[in-house]
Amino acid sequence: MPSRDSQLILASTSTYRANLLVRLGIPFETSAPSIDESRLPNETFNAMAARLSQVKAKAIRHPNALIVGSDQVAVVGDQQLHKPGSVNRAVEQLELISGRTVEFYTGVSLWNTATDRCQTKVVQYKATLRDLNRHEIEAYVAADSPLDCAGAFKWERLGISLMQALEGADPTALEGLPLIALCNMLRNEGLALP
Predict the structure, then answer these.
(1) What is the tally of structural domains in the chain?
(2) Which of 158, 165, 157 shows the shortest CA–CA distance to 137?
(3) Catalytic residue among 36, 71, 131, 144
(4) For labelling, which of 10, 36, 107, 185 has a CA lying 20 to 30 Å from the CA of 21?
(5) Is 193 a domain residue?
């Protein structure tokens, strides 16, 4: 069980993840993990999300903390989708996934540095996009600028207009931090949540 002096640390500088964690009303700090996020040979996407969330949490050093690590892997078919980083790549990515289902594997780990206990869970979420034409794609990218999002859409904003269906138990997993799983982990560590 964490002591009163335990700190909650988010091992990420993602504003999306920080905004999600704020919803729990628990004070926290952020710290940037420096890790290799490459996929290992023959590693499944599910295993990759689990491993990277653990590695991110354990990359942060603090003697008495609960450290949250998270990683999201977006996949269409057998192809991993990365953050596009540019307008052209965002348009290309949306053309690729138009009319298709993107699977998101979002890993979350909670590492108690005092006890060395690390809980990990991967939450899967599916987003099926409707058939999009080039004009719709270009207009969407110009309006929402999803350059830092794997899949090149922000479902929590205008990206919802691109969707045909969403499927999964925890929509926050689609944003990068599965809060339902994290709340259960925090309770397991003795934190009182409503």
Answers:
(1) 1
(2) 158
(3) 71
(4) 36
(5) no
